[in-house]
Design goal:
The protein is mainly alpha-helical. It has 14 helices and 4 strands. The chain folds into 2 domains: 240 residues, no CATH class; 107 residues, abc type-2 transporter like fold, CATH 3.40.1710. Strand 1, helix 3 and strand 2 form a beta-alpha-beta unit.
Length: 390
Amino acid sequence: MKRKILESLQRIRWLIRKEFIQIVRNRQNLMMLLVAPLVQLIIFGSASRLDVNSVSTVVVDLDHSRMSRDIVEGFSRSGYFKIIRYLDSYEAVDKLLERNIASLAILIPPDFEQRVNGRRKAEVGVLIDGVDTITAGTVSGYAQSILQRFSDDILVSRINSMQGLLYDSTTPRLIVPQVTDASRAWFNPNLNSKDFFVPGVVVLLLLTLAIILTSAVIVREREIGTIEQLMVAPISRLELILGKTIPCFTIEIVTLLTITPLALLLYDIPFRGSLSFFFGAFLLFLITASGIGMTISAFCSTQQQAVLTSFMFLQPSILLSGYAFPIENMPPVIQYITYLNPVRYFIAIVRGVFLKGTGWEVLWPQLAPIFIMSIVYIAWASALFKRRID
C-alpha cells in the first residue's frame, strides 16, 4: 500500500514538472500570469471608488446679496464642490449639464435675501446630473447638508437676537434646547470607499486567474492531441487532474501572497482579522474556483471555448456577488440565485476579516457553503472528465 502511494506521488510529481516546464517555456504567458494581476490591482483599486470630490459646479446668482454669497461660499469651502463658472440666467445651465461640463448647478432666485429677512419661505434650486444615480445621490446628500447647515445658522442667529439662548438668574429668559448629531461609523470611520472595494478587487482578480488558468490546462492537452497519450499512460484520472491543477494552484497562491500585501501598502487598507484564517479561507476559495475551472474544461474542446465560457461564468458571478451592488436591493428571485454563487460568500468573508476583524466564530456560515461547493464542483468535474474520455 505504501509503495503504491509513493509510486502515485512520483507520477503526480512528474506531471507537475511537465506542466511547469510548459508554463515557463512560454515566457510571454508567464509574464502575463505574474504581472497582469499586479497591474490590474493598481488600476482597479484606484478606479473602484465612490468618494465624491471636486464636483464641477456652476452658479446662477440672481440675488447678488450677502446671503447668496454665503451659500456659494459654503459649497466652495466644503471641498466636495468646485465652482467652475458663474452664469447670468437659468437657461444657460442646461447646455453645460448636457455637455458634461458641469454636474451640479446652484440656482439662487433674485429675491432670496428679501424673502429670508421677510420671514417667508426661500428656495434655492439645485440641479444634479442624474445619469449616474449613485454619484447623484451622494451629491444630493452633500448639497442638502450644506443648505440645512445654512438654514440652521439663520435659525440660531434669530434665536440669539431674541435672547433665547441667554440665561440670567435675576431675569429668567427662555432657553431653547438643541439636538446635535453624534453619530459614528464603526469599522470604517472615515467612510472610505477604497476600504470597501479593494478587498473585493483582490478576490475578483484571484477568481478570474483561477478559473481561466484551470479551465485551459486540460483543454490544451485535448486541443493539441496529447490527452490520448496521457490516458494510455499508467496514471489514474485523479493523478492526471492533480498533476494538471497543482501548478495552476501554485501560481494562484504566489499571486495571492503578492497582491495582498501590495493592496495593504498601496491603499492603506486596514487588516484587523486573523492572518491564518484569511489565508486558510482563501485556499478553500481557490480550490472551489479551480473546481469550477475544471468543470468548464470538461465541457470545452478548445482553449478559446474555455476562455469564453469562463467569462460567461465570471460576469454574472461578479455582478451577483455584492461587490458593487447590495444583494438586498436586488429582486427576490435574483437574491435566491446568489446563494449558488461562491463569490457572494467569500466577499463577505474578506470584508469581515479586513474591516471588522471577525473570524471563524462569526464567518463560518459563509465558509460552509464554499466548502460544500468545492466538493460538488470537483466531483462534478471528475465525473464529466471521465465521461468525455470514455
